[in-house]
User: Which sequence fits this backbone?
């Protein structure tokens, strides 16, 4: 009878351990999904030495580390961190590593073509006045 009690206790402990191991991979997957995020904002600056960027999101500046293998794209072209101009619209895909945001993909929006000012349009539409004789 004593042997049966010990056997039941051992089986109960084993089943608890197996249940925890089965639940652990699911928790790790959900943490991985939750840790990846996308940030859309305005590019402020880059520090090539520290390998970081600052993106303005709303009224707040967000500093992100840039992964050494990060893809930096402007349209379909791959560009360098130093090629991104201030005030460019960017979309940054990042993940949390040791409590810090680390960018693994940066997409720079193509700059919009500037429209000429109304005064310039009006001046171009009017012919130059002929000199008086």
Assistant:
């Amino acid at each position: 009878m004593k042997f049966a009690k010990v056997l039941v206790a051992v089986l109960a402990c084993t089943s608890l351990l197996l249940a925890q191991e089965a639940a652990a991979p699911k928790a790790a997957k959900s943490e991985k999904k939750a840790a990846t995020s996308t940030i859309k904002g305005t590019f402020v600056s880059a520090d090539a030495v520290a390998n970081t960027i600052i993106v303005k999101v709303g009224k707040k500046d967000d500093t992100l580390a840039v992964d050494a293998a990060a893809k930096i794209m402007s349209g379909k072209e791959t560009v360098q961190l130093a090629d991104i101009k201030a005030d460019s619209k960017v979309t940054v895909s990042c993940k949390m590593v040791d409590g810090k945001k680390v960018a693994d993909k940066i997409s720079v929006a193509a700059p919009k073509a500037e429209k000429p000012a109304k005064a310039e349009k009006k001046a171009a539409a009017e012919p130059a006045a002929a000199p008086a004789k």
Observations:
- The chain has two helices and six strands.
- Helices lie at 2-35, 118-125.
- The CA atoms of residues 35 and 97 lie 8 Å apart.
- The first strand starts at residue 36 and ends at 47.
